[in-house]
Description:
The complex is a heterodimer. By secondary structure, chain A is mainly α. Chain A is built from six helices and two strands; from the N terminus they run ααααβααβ. The model of chain B is unreliable at 122-135 (pLDDT under 50). The chains are: A mainly alpha, B mainly alpha.
Amino acid sequence: MRAxxxxxxxxxxxxxxxxxxxxxxxxxxxxxDALVTATGVAVLYGLxxxxxxxxxxxxxxWPGDLGWSVPTVAGVVATAYLALSWSASGRTVGNVLLGLRxxxxxxxxxxxLRALLRxxxxxxxxxxxxxxxxxxxxxxxxxxxxxxxxxxxxxPSNRP
Amino acid sequence: xxxxxxxxxxxxxxxEAVLWPTVDGLxxxxxxxxxVLAHVSIPRIVEAIDIKAVLATVDVSGVADQVVRDLDLPQxxxxxxxxxxxxxxxxxxxxxxxADDVVDRLVGRLVHRRHADxxxxxxxxxxxxxxWEAP
Lengths: 160, 135
């Protein structure tokens, strides 16, 4: 009797789509987002210094003691970046690279307010990510509080 | 005079019926390549050719431009770099997904978790076939 051809295994990248992302992927995405934010802040300070130089070149000097302005500006930039990215497409640059997407638990996209609050909590309490491997659905504390989920999602056919 | 008896038609008939079959048969018996190699001095011919004069008649830069235009090098470079970056990014995603599972298993052992809702990712070397399409 002729043997039936064996079914072709589904590629692993397809089986991953829609599954909750774990700690390593999310930490890596967060690290990339931190780099993006740092670059944005550096560009912002460079622009401000450039404008100051153009206005008064003779008395221009690089700002020495920036004090609390750097963490404050970085916090504002990071909050705006995360909230806008999550509410617009569910993905930051780090999420895009790691193939992740942030959605509400029911699969709908985040609204601006929820994204903003989630961004603030992620910045204020990043250690909440460490809850992911302890949760049966890979949720961080931020996900638990705001009813969100982060899934592997990098194939076009999987997008809502 | 009938048309087939005219001189031109006679020569043509002779060529078709006798001459060309004879020449063709001779050429089949003689290996022309061996003949040329044995009797013709190729270095002398090459020496006799004025390469510079030949090249002067050719628009080399025009030919090069045409070749580059036909090849569409920017598109080739774009395609190859996109393929490289896509492979690298997909590799990164699969590796991080595997690392996620490793962390989950470690923590699961620590807290004696029996099973999780999150299915464990199959090993890439088992499930991924060569040639699977990139996103």
